[in-house]
Amino acid sequence: MKKIIHFILSVIILSQSMNVSAKDIIQMDDFFKHAQYHYEEFGDDLFTFVSKHYGELKEEHNKKHQNESSQHEQLPFNHHLGSHTSTIFLADFIENEQIPAPFGNLLSHHFFYLLPATSKATVDIFQPPKIA
């Protein structure tokens, strides 16, 4: 039972890392129908079909077959993720001047730490053994 749960969790983590969603799995039927259409009309094998819709030939194929754009939108794995992050770090190199506080002179610090008069560490039981 543990192996099955580990396998399922591994598949879920792998699919999420590859950005595969349930919608993509449902759209696999459209993928195979469109691949069959390309095989019948153009004689494309599976590798050529994938190249035309996801690879190098995608732009050229979209220009030639603009009438199929509605079918192309229904294909799985057509995510347009536009998450760009830019981090800007600006350092302030101007020396900060010490501005005196208006009430700084009125405050006085009267704090003194005194050692306690008795300590448990000074009791004989907590001392190292003495050589006789």
Description:
The chain is 43% helix and 0% strand. It is mostly helical and 132 residues long. The protein has a domain at 21-79. The mean pLDDT is 76.
How are the secondary structure elements laid out?
Layout: H1 2-17, H2 22-26, H3 28-42, H4 46-54, H5 58-64, H6 69-73
Helix pairs in contact: 4-5
Give the SSE string: HHHHHH
Distance between the termini: 66 Å
> Strand share of the residues?
under 5%
For the secondary structure, the number of strands is 0
Query: Quick one: overall form?
Result: elongated
Based on CA atoms alone, the radius of gyration comes out at 36 Å
Give the helix tally: 6
Helicity range of the residues? 40-55%
In short:
With 132 residues, this protein is mainly α. It contains 6 helices and no strands.
Please supply descriptive tags for the structure shown above.
mainly alpha; 132 residues; 6 helices; single chain
